[in-house]
Amino acid sequence: MSPGRSAPPAVAEADAALAAAGARAIAARIVARVVHGRLLDRALERELPTAPPGQVPLIQEMTYGALRFAPKLQTLSTRLLKRPLRERDADVSALLWVGLYQLIHMRIQEYAAVSCSVEAATWLDKPWAKELINACLRRFLREKSALLAETAADPEARYSHPLWLLDALKQAWPAHWPAIVEANNERPPLSLRVNLRRGTREEYLQRLRTAGLDATPLPHSDSGVVLQEPVPVSALPGFAEGAVSVQDGAAQLAASLLDMQPGQNVLDACAAPGGKLCHLLERAPEGTRMVALDKEPARLPLIQQNLRRLGLTAEVVLGDASEPGSWWDGRSFDRILLDVPCSATGVIRRHPDIKLHRTPAELGKLQRLQVAILQALWPLLRSGGKLLYMTCSVLPGENDEQLQAFLAEHADAGVAPLSLPFALARNPGVQILPGEQGMDGFYYGCLRKS
Ligand SMILES: C[S@@+](CC[C@H](N)C(=O)[O-])C[C@H]1O[C@@H](n2cnc3c(N)ncnc32)[C@H](O)[C@@H]1O
Description:
By secondary structure, the protein is of the alpha/beta class. It has three domains: 9-160, N-utilizing Substance Protein B Homolog, Chain A (Orthogonal Bundle); 190-246, Alpha-Beta Plaits, CATH 3.30.70; 254-449, Vaccinia Virus protein VP39 (Rossmann fold). The protein is built from 18 helices and 13 strands. Helix 4 (70-80) packs across helix 5 (90-105). The chain starts with 8 loop residues before the first helix and ends with a strand. Mean pLDDT is 96; it is low at 1-5.
C-alpha cells in the first residue's frame, strides 16, 4: 500500500482479528513456558518480541492474569476437558486458561474472547484445537455459575494459591491471611522513586502531569510516587536520564532504615539488580564508601546499568556473601544491608509465577542460605555498627524467627528498634503485608553490634 493511504476497512478488520488472535496465542505460549518451569520474566523476554504491533499490554494483562489465577483456571480446565491434554500440548491447555481468564476477569465481550481464543489455536499451529477451545469456553459460559460455585468449594481454586502456601499463611497470619491472599491476587500499582539528586518529588509530579500521567505521592516517603495507570518505563519523563526509578514503596524504606551517617563504610550484600543500592547512593551522606556484592555473575551488569543510568558509583564486587574470605578486603563495615534471597511471598502480585514454582522444600533451602549469609557477615560489622536484614517474604521462618535464633546465639547482637506507623510490629522488626498502603510485603529487622 502506498504511504499515506490507510487500509480498506475489510483488510484493517482482518489484520486486527489476526493480531487479536496472535495476542492470545503468545500469552498462551508464555504461560506454557512458565508452567514448564521458566521464570515469567524470561518467558516474557523470549516471546514478547514476536507480538503483533500494539498487542503487548493485552498480552501482559492476559499472561499475568492467567498465572495469578492459575490454580482456579487449572481446576476449571480439568472439569471442562474430557481428558487431560498431552504434555506437548501445554500451549493448548494454557490457551484455555487464557480464554477462561478473559471470560472471568476481563471486560472483553464474550464472543470476542471466545472467537479470538479459538483463532489463536491456528496461530499456535494447532488448528485441531479450535473445536476443543470453542467447546470448552462455550460450555463454561453456559454453566458458569455452577462451575464457579463448584471450584469455590476447593480452597486452592477458591483463593488461587497452592495449598502449602495457604496453610503457611493461615498459620503465620490467622487474622490477616484472607487480606494477604486477596492482595496477592490483585494487579500491583506502578510505584516510582524520584531521584532527589536530580529534583524534588513535586517537580517530578509536575513533569508527569505535563506528560498526561496521573500520579500521587506515596505517603511516608519524600521520594515515592504511585501512578494511576501503569505505563512502560519508556513513557516516564526523564527515565533514561535517571530522574526516576521503578521501585515499590515498601522497598523504598530500606534506605532510611539503614540510617547511614557521613563517612561510613557500607556493604549492600545481595545487591543485584541494584534497586536498593541506587537508592542508598542517592541518599548517601558525604564520604560514604559503598560496596555492592552479588554472587551471580549474570546479574552484575544489571547493577552497572542502573548505576550508569542514575550517574552513581559503587565498588561492585562478585562474591558469595556466605564466604567473605574470597572477596573481603578486611575493612569493617559500619552498615550492612542484607536483602537476602527469599521466597518472595510478599511480591506474588508482581511475580505470580511464584505460585507455580515455589515449593516447601525450596523454602527450607532458602532459610539455610539466609542463616549462612547472616552468620558469615556478622564478623564484618564493626562494633557499634548496624545490620539491616530484610526480605520480600511474609513468612516468619525467613524473617523475625531467623533474627530471634541469631540473637539467641550471638551475645554481641542486640535489636535496633524500627518503628513504622503502618507496619506490624514483630519481635524483632516490622512486617509490611502486601496491599498495605498499596505496597508490597516486606520484612525489616535491624541488629546492632555491641
Ligand atoms: C532479593 S535479591 C536482591 C535485590 C536487590 N537488593 C535490589 O534491591 O535490587 C537477592 C540477591 O541475592 C543474590 N544472592 C543470592 N545468594 C547470594 C550469596 N550467597 N551471596 C551474595 N549474593 C547472593 C542474588 O543473586 C540476588 O541478586
